[in-house]
Amino acid sequence: MIKIVFFAALREQLDCAELSLAADDAKTVDDIKQLLSDKNEQWQQTFSNASLLSAVNHDMVDGSHLVKSGDEVAFFPPVTGG
Amino acid sequence: MLKQATSIKDACQEISIQADDFSLADEVALLEKDNVTDGAVVTFTGRVRNNNNGNSVTTLTLEHYPGMTEKSLAKIIIQAKERWNIGRVKVIHRIGELNIGDQIVFVGVTSKHRQDAFAANEFIMDYLKVKAPFWKKEQITDDGQTSENWLDAKNSDTDKADLWS
């Protein structure tokens, strides 16, 4: 299984903090994004936002990053701390 | 001379993510305690403003990504130590609900001479702004109407961080 987590405005737009995916459903971060977009129109619109960032196991990665079973994948808007 | 590499785990000792306020005096005292080699102590404190983009801000809520926050800050501290000759580092970031004037963030750096501490402190702050997974939501009052919205990231912060690369 792959754990997917969402933060901040993205979490609120999706009304979802986390979910799980079967590991064989997706190979890369972009594949996961596509799978999530296919869920419905709301999710498709949300994931069409090009500024969304992604992380795998707490490291920022780009869409081509390979994902494996047991990984934690996060999607979130650009950060605004400090 | 090769500098000893700092691990993520070591760097995490220099980071605190907390809901509670912090004391600038206490943090400076810790940076200076039994530290006889460093002549420079540079600190930065960030506070909640009462205004943003012309709106009147009443409170601010800070969300973060536990685990990734610590790891990303640790990586920033390690980079700073590779780049400058610095002694002690402390980074504090508050989370949860904050009020106007509250302290949000603290970065403290010591070094033998001031240049390294000044540069490393600014570098850590600039990278924290664009790499550490924190998000601010502000509660604003406009003509008596209260609303809240997530802050947008600023291009100026990205540009500033890019200057170090």
From TrEMBL, chain A:
Classification via Gene3D superfamilies: 3.10.20.30
Source taxon at top rank: Bacteria
GO molecular function: nucleotide binding
Keyword tags: Nucleotide-binding
SUPFAM superfamilies, sorted: MoaD/ThiS
Gene Ontology CC: molybdopterin adenylyltransferase complex
Family membership: Belongs to the MoaD family.
NCBIfam families found in the cross-reference section: moaD
Listed name of the protein: Molybdopterin synthase sulfur carrier subunit
Source organism of this protein record: Colwellia demingiae
Gene: moaD
From TrEMBL, chain B:
Entry EC no(s): 2.8.1.12
Gene Ontology molecular function: molybdopterin synthase activity
Claim: Transferase is one of the keywords in the record: yes
Coiled coil (UniProt feature): none
InterPro entries attached to this UniProt entry: MoaE_sf, Mopterin_biosynth_MoaE
Family matches, as Pfam families: MoaE
GO biological process: Mo-molybdopterin cofactor biosynthetic process
Keyword entries, A-Z: Molybdenum cofactor biosynthesis, Transferase
Superkingdom of origin: Bacteria
Listed pathway(s): Cofactor biosynthesis; molybdopterin biosynthesis
Biased composition (Basic and acidic residues): 154-165
Catalysed conversion reaction: 2 [molybdopterin-synthase sulfur-carrier protein]-C-terminal-Gly-aminoethanethioate + cyclic pyranopterin phosphate + H2O = molybdopterin + 2 [molybdopterin-synthase sulfur-carrier protein]-C-terminal Gly-Gly + 2 H(+)
Family: Belongs to the MoaE family.
PANTHER family recorded: MOLYBDOPTERIN SYNTHASE RELATED (PTHR23404)
Subunit structure: Heterotetramer of 2 MoaD subunits and 2 MoaE subunits. Also stable as homodimer. The enzyme changes between these two forms during catalysis.
Protein name, per record: Molybdopterin synthase catalytic subunit
Organism: Colwellia psychrerythraea
